[in-house]
Amino acid sequence: MLDRLAFLKLFPAGALLLQTPNWQAKSSLHNHIPLKETLIYENPLASTEDLKNFHLEGEAALSFENGKLRMQNKLDPALGQKSNFVLWCPKKFPADIVIRWKFRPLSEPGLAMMFFAANGKDGQDLFDKRLAIRKGEYNQYHHGDMNAFHLAYFRRRYDTERAFHLCNLRKSYGANIVAQGADPIPSVSDILYPMEMKIVKSKATITFYINDLLVLTYADDGQKFGSLLKGGYLGFRQMAPLIAEYWDLKIHSLSL
Q1: Residue 31: exposed, middle, or buried by beta-carbon count in 10 A (0-12, 13-18, 19+)?
Q2: Residue 71 and residue 62: Cα distance in Å, rounded?
Q3: Are strands 146-155 and 166-172 parallel, antiparallel or unpaired?
Q4: Domain 26-255, CATH class in plain words
Q5: What is the C-alpha separation between 57 and 47, in angstroms, rounded?
Q6: What pLDDT, in 10s, does the model give residues 126-180?
Q7: In the chain, what is the straight-line distance between the N-terminal and C-terminal CA atoms, in Å?
């Protein structure tokens, strides 16, 4: 076994620094394109008034502690999927956007997910009365009357998810996993500060960051899992019995 001196001779400090990953580095996927961000929607999620016209599917207790939206299930987690819910923002967004929000889980287990680019499966508005009813059960979202991207970014519901933390990006129709990345969010007992979440949807490319750390990326070919998903709605999904806070939702459009 090498002692410390021998180790340093083999690997001088400069060499070690070159091998050290830059955890704050941002994706270079978009750096060569001078995209302009324009704020098109902002919601602090701080009061009942801020949720005016939002759509809740399933049953949930929504409250506001310290100016933040707190969400938790109303139904017994023993009911399985029936105890989960989705809260939809009422605004339809364009295809090329940046979605930012702050997130802090307060009680595990459970799961947090963001739906985006969501529409009816055949191009209808997501809230068209002719679409099948949705009440928070996951099969209604991945094999129902809608298409969307599903980003599961805090997966702590099951033993296997808590044993190996991953973020999953799925595309529907279908529950197709199109990208995965390591989840840097610590367990609830170890969280020291809020998580700053960011999704960039630019043309056919999706990138996801937590606190400016690139977590995953996906370049859609518009063929293997269906055509490209363009503009649409976004929604927050929780699996019971997670309790979590959300605030400072901001959407920017992207343009040249």
Answers
A1: exposed
A2: 5
A3: antiparallel
A4: mainly beta
A5: 19
A6: 999 999 999 999 999 999 999 999 999 999 999 999 999 999 999 999 999 999 9
A7: 56
Q: Domain limits of the chain?
A: 26-255
Torsion angles phi and psi, residue 209, rounded to 5: -125, 145
Length of the chain measured in residues = 256
pLDDT tens by residue, 12-70: 433 333 333 333 334 344 456 678 999 999 999 999 999 999 999 999 999 999 899 99
Radius of gyration of the chain (CA): 20
